[in-house]
Amino acid sequence: MVFQQENAAVHSARLSNDFFQENNVALLDHPACSPDLNPIENVWGWMAREVSDHGCPL
């Protein structure tokens, strides 16, 4: 198994990295500031744009 995480500062802290190394956890290389891979977040964004385009305030 490979663990996936974004490279946010809290995820790339020394304590976190030490834990993964000590427990032989493989990490997927993931660039910092990459697009959100969570599909529901993209759906919420699409829905907000649709509502806004039809003149309804959010």
TrEMBL record:
GO molecular function, one term: nucleic acid binding
Sequence ranges assigned to domain Tc1-like transposase DDE in this UniProt record: 6-53
InterPro entries: RNaseH_sf, Tc1-like_DDE_dom
Protein name (Swiss-Prot/TrEMBL): Tc1-like transposase DDE domain-containing protein
Gene3D superfamilies per UniProt: Ribonuclease H-like superfamily/Ribonuclease H (3.30.420.10)
Pfam families for this protein: DDE_3 (PF13358)
Highest taxon in the source lineage: Eukaryota
